[in-house]
Automatic annotation (TrEMBL):
Domain FAD/NAD(P)-binding: 5-311
Note on how the cofactor is bound: Binds 1 FAD per subunit.
Binding site for FAD: 51, 299
Species this protein is from: Solidesulfovibrio aerotolerans
Cysteines joined through disulfide linkages: 42-47
UniProt-recorded name of the protein: FAD-dependent oxidoreductase
Keyword Transmembrane helix in record: no
Positions with a binding annotation for NAD(+): 172-179, 258
MF (Gene Ontology): nucleotide binding; oxidoreductase activity
Keyword Nucleotide-binding: yes
Alphabetically ordered keywords of this record: FAD, Flavoprotein, NAD, Nucleotide-binding
């Protein structure tokens, strides 16, 4: 028997919900296919568990900065209790979403789906026909094939740990490696970051990254570039990683080497859906460039960001375009990215290297936050900002902030960029004093 829907969504994460609800509200019949947990990575194995674990780690970090400045003694992270607290956030998500979709009369089918034709899917033993199909399958862990690959753990394994191992190695020099290494190190583990290339955190501004890497090393985290892992051996007292000219002992090795789109097994060829290593290829309306019945949103897209807020935005835009026939091009202007390290590194817009590569004229302003009151009172080092503004129009081209509260301040800059406000708007605003945001007037 074939079930028919107006919209079938493959994947029940952040890229699914807004489109499912919007299309159902418009009167469409909607089915969601989810092979794992409703809610996807963000609430189960991504943003949320990571941030809950970081709460105590942030308190420990702040206490260390304030030692000798009025605070004595150091709070001790209690990992098993942190893990138990984290579960209180994770466990309710999937049941809550199931109930919410049930109330909205959106069908949820707990099965892995794959294409059988341009408008048809199979999930388990069920055949499905849909007028439109939204691909929201997300991304997955990179595959390695070196000897000993079976000893590799994932970020999911790390975030589910009941006890923190003493020696952790992270393969990769991006978001996951830096955030989890900082978390582990503050909680008492010896952490090492190994990346195969000659630089880390490539999406961020190089000057801000240099300061963060220095701060990372000062915390006792080893950071090795040009260090591809060639094998992992299990030995009597743990694991031994081999990289050229170096052997490293570890209790856990985490694969943090990027997240390719989760498109294996979808049989995209049967639906004539074009995709490359970076993901599903779509036009500005998020419609497949080769199959007009198929749209895509979230981490499975070949797109500049793979974040929860961009998955949400893309889901809303895809829904609008499916309902109205391609009226709303995607606009990602003013997307903030935050690396939740200690301190956090936040950015929006272009880096200086982007401006140079694209031949865009810019006025650069650098500011030492560690010399400014809100950061000094917390005893925090380092602190840095770099802003890039058009000398002709005063438009904000990019902002890069490293320091306490950078993760919140960047939202204001991102809002200004999205609304097309000039840098003067930030210089002229009346900011509450003494907040970190007050110093935006000096950063621009
Ligand atoms: C450790 C970590 C920390 C992160 N921290 C942050 C952060 O702080 N801030 C931020 O903005 N982003 C963060 N992210 C990224 C964020 O989690 C993702 O961008 C977001 O979850 C993407 O949503 P999505 O719906 O595209 O994909 P996902 O959340 O991956 O959801 C896809 C869903 O599709 C299902 N699925 C896949 N294939 C099929 C199939 N064939 N049939 C049925 N179901 C299928 C999967 O089971 C999954 O539930 C983090 C990611 C990780 C890994
Ligand atoms: N705070 C946040 O918003 C947040 C946090 C975590 C993840 N994320 C999202 O999830 C995505 C995935 O994160 P990620 O850290 O896995 O990916 P990433 O793309 O940020 O970093 C991957 C890193 O792995 C390195 N690498 C690639 N192949 C390698 C190899 N063979 N050996 C060693 N290193 C290798 C890359 O050079 C890069 O440094 C991010 O791009 C981001 O969009 C966001």
């Amino acid at each position: 028997m074939t079930s028919s829907y107006d919209l079938a969504i493959i994947g029940g994460g952040p890229a699914c919900g807004p489109a499912a609800r919007r299309c159902r509200q418009a009167g469409w019949s909607v089915a969601i296919f989810e092979s794992g947990l409703l809610g996807g990575v963000c609430p189960h194995t991504g943003c949320n568990p990571k941030k809950v674990l970081m709460g105590p780690a942030e308190a420990v970090g702040m206490a260390r900065h304030l030692a000798g400045k009025g605070l004595t003694g150091e709070p001790q992270p209690d990992w098993p209790a942190m893990a138990a607290f984290t579960r209180t956030f994770i466990d309710p998500v999937a049941p809550w979403l199931a109930e919410d979709y049930r109330k909205a009369d959106i069908e949820v089918i707990h099965a892995r789906a794959a294409f059988t034709g341009p408008n048809t899917l199979r999930a388990g033993n069920t055949d499905i026909a849909a007028k439109k199909i939204l691909l929201a399958v997300g991304a997955t862990h990179r595959r390695f094939d070196f000897p000993g690959v079976e000893h590799l753990a994932t970020s999911d394994d790390f975030l589910a740990l009941q006890k923190l191992p003493a020696r952790l190695v992270f393969i990769g020099g991006g978001f996951v490696a830096f955030e989890l290494a900082h978390l582990a190190a503050v909680c008492g583990a010896r952490a090492t970051i190994l990346t195969h290339g000659d630089a880390t955190l490539r999406r961020f501004d190089a000057d801000a990254v240099a300061r963060l890497v220095a701060a990372t090393r000062a915390m006792g985290i080893a950071v090795h570039t040009n260090a591809p892992v060639t094998r992992i051996d299990k030995e009597a007292h743990g694991l031994c990683l081999s990289v050229p000219d170096l052997e490293i002992a570890a209790d856990m090795v985490v694969n943090a080497a990027g997240r390719p789109p989760h498109i294996r097994g979808l049989a995209l060829d049967l639906a004539n859906v074009a995709a490359g290593p970076a993901g599903i290829r779509v036009n500005e309306f998020l419609q497949s460039i080769t199959n007009p019945a198929v749209y895509a949103a979230g981490d499975c897209l070949d797109a500049p960001y793979a974040l929860t807020p961009t998955a949400d935005l893309e889901s809303r835009v895809a829904a609008e375009n499916m309902l109205t026939g391609n009226t709303t091009p995607i606009n990602r202007t003013g997307t903030p990215s935050v690396l939740f390290t200690q301190p956090p590194l936040a950015m929006a817009g272009l880096t200086e290297a982007d401006c140079q590569a694209q031949g865009i004229a810019y006025t650069k302003k650098e500011y030492d936050l560690s010399d400014a009151f809100p950061w000094q009172r917390l005893g925090e080092h380092p602190g840095y900002s770099k802003t890039l503004v058009s000398p002709d129009t005063d438009q904000i081209l990019g902002a890069h902030i490293l320091g306490h509260a950078a993760d919140e301040i960047i939202n204001v800059v991102a809002l200004a960029m999205r609304q097309g406000l000039p840098a003067k708007a930030l210089r002229d605003a009346i900011w509450a004093y003494p907040t970190c945001g007050y110093y935006l007037r000096y950063m621009f």
